[in-house]
Write a structure and sequence with these properties.
- This protein has 16 helices and 17 strands.
- It is α/β, with parallel strands linked by helices.
- α13 runs parallel beside α14.
Amino acid sequence: MGLFGTKHKQSDARLHQLLEDVCADSDQCVRILLRRDDLYPVYISANFRTMLGIDPQRYVDDIYVLLRRIPAENRLEIERTIKAWDRAGKLTQLCAYDMPGDQPVRKHLRITTTPVADGERYLVELIDVTEERQAIEQARAERDRALQIVEGRSSFMSQMSHEIRTPLNGVKGIIELARDHSTEPELLLDDLQRADELSGYLLSLINDVLDMSRLNSGHVELEALPFDMRLVARELQSMFEKQAQDAQIDYRVETDGCDDVFLVGDRIRLNQVVVNFISNALKFTDAGGSVTVTMREMYRSERIVNYLIRVRDTGKGMDPRYISRIFLPFEQEDRTIARRYGGTGLGMAITDALVDLMGGKIVVDTEPGKGSDFTAYIPFKLADEKQIEQLEQEGETLETRSDEGGTPTEYTFAGKRFLLAEDNDLNAMIATAMLEDLGVAVDRADDGPVVVDMFGKSAPGAYDAVLMDIQMPTLNGWEATRRIRALDRPDAQTVPIIALSANNYVEDARESRKAGMNGHAGKPIEIAELKAQLAAATAESALSSRR
């Protein structure tokens, strides 16, 4: 504690007692005792220099030195408040304060002025509330972010509700029409075709919404498996070749400059990203235009290789101002796009989230009437010699793949007998009818323990495959598969078991493989997908039996 201005020092016991009682040193704030008449500081607490960065004597010589460290806007407000003060009650003000120095630090102070000693003195307390203010600002920012999230979710749910209800209402309306056309086969078939298209769009929308939800919640896991980038390019070429030809669009996939082609990553999610780019490019490109896919190795860093994957089209292009919104859910440049070109409005949001999950980034270059250029820069690990050898053994390199499609799909359903595990009666009825139309005899089990018991009691080789639902009431499909594989009979290890699940994600497929299944197919059943899974499983089982 220090007293300044000896000629003004008070010697009466009352002032000394006041200084002891109300002006004790504090680590929390600076205290100054001013004379009312001329605002002369008769007391300054010892931590003045530490907290405010100014020598106390400078303040004694010039009481406005502190005021000049306060930003102008705060200073004017302080002066206005003081003018309106009645000098009787306590006055509290908040202001910024710039510490002296070459690199000034801004603090925030709470200044409280209290009349003391019968109004003859003012006790001024300057409290550093910088941390408190930062905490308040952080809380406000978090509140604003939370409000934005809530508002965004509300908007998302509202738009999603609209997007789902529209095709669903269409399906219901077409069903009513189909009833009216029950005696007119041509009109009935047309109704069924339109209902199928709408239900396909609805399923696509729901899948996209679930994908978006899982990505936002951090529940999507990426595979880290070896693959040949050249096969990815070839599949993309064959996947869209016919569509491009029919639309009279020049479509090419180029792989110049790809030296390291054996990579480790999530090939399925990579395909999803590039397919989204290509689908949009073809959608917005008119006849006579072109869509070019370029895959190029950019640079290597130890065991990481960075790839450029670009999809360039000569289509309608976009207003560059729209680019900042293109990756937001349900965003489209104008309201006519969904009606004219289709799409759920979630594809690019999912694509952006996937590329981010892969550790990459997307760059967009576009101009109305001159097309668009979507480029993803994605890092991959390099496959090691053991992984490359594994790919060669599996026929999953460009040199070793024997057929155009890659996975053997020659599979004959006629004459086969399947064991179907499905607890839902409607799903079981649909699956059974589809398989019986293909010439398959179907036995149904409605729960996990039942399918294990039915397989265990059947003659060896009685079933050509088991189609296993995952979610069942007593025993799930994974545990049922483990119990079948553990049975002491010759076909327990070799019978193809294919998972059937509405959850057709990487994590689910991985869990199915861990449980001993040969494949994992989604619901509703797609016969082509099931055929490919069964063909691969049959080949796998035949190979295992020869070992």
